Amino acid sequence: MGYRFRRKLLNVLISILVIYTIVLAFFSIVCLSFNYTHIKSVVKKFSMYPTLNASILDENEPGDTVYINKFAPLNRGDIVVANVPWWPEVIIKRMVALPGDSLRVNDAGEVYELIVNEQLLRTYDKYITSPIGGKLVSKDTVEHFNGINEIIEQNKGTSRVKQNANGQDMLILQPDEYFLLGDNWANSTDCSNIKYRPAKKSEIIGSVDVIIKKNENKYNAMIVALFKMIFTF
User: Fold this and answer.
1) For the stretch 21-51, what's the b/e string if a residue is b when 16 or more beta carbons lie within 10 angstroms of its beta carbon?
2) Domain-wise residue ranges, the chain
3) Per the count of CB atoms within 10 A, which of 29, 90, 188, 213 is most buried?
4) What does the mean pLDDT of the chain come to?
5) Contact (Cβ atoms closer than 8 angstroms) between residue 8 and residue 146
6) What top-level class would CATH report for the domain 32-231?
7) Per-residue pLDDT reduced to its tens digit, 152-183
């Protein structure tokens, strides 16, 4: 084997080693950054079903795993984790309205509509399937609908309630108010209850940007999450 060939082979091996070292260092930095910016949590309740699942058979069995970004900006529609004074545990809910937003609900027959800034944000099923067949009105869903209307009714005559062009009353979120609702109105304690005020920004731990379903391969999911993080730098 000639000197030139050995020299070329050595240069190739050095180049491969340098590239490997750079890639390894880069992914190490990304992993360290992810661990610094995120908190891991396991879903134990059903208030965000079907978006997030707890264990159906055993409440002690882990449900979906979420990673909470502590530094992400808060956006309408985000799933967030908060530590509010009106509930003994950390809650995970959807942020449906931000400071300055208007909010009202509308009965649309089969569903209740959540209207934010006069745009349809989400719908919630009014009925549940009866064990013996047919449909039943969900008592808990009705309570959510009535609860939001009760909040509006009790704040009439203040800056918290205004009317739209059609004369419908709307709740106006005040500075540092974030309205949180569970996706599963049939099983959620949230801001639809007049006893539970909107969350403050200081009470919001962060927003969920990685969800690993309980039956999903967590390593594959984390690789996907890390690549997403890389391409958002």
Assistant:
1) eeeeeeeeeeeeebeebbeebebbbbbbbeb
2) 32-231
3) 188
4) 84
5) no
6) mainly beta
7) 999 999 999 999 999 999 999 999 999 999 99
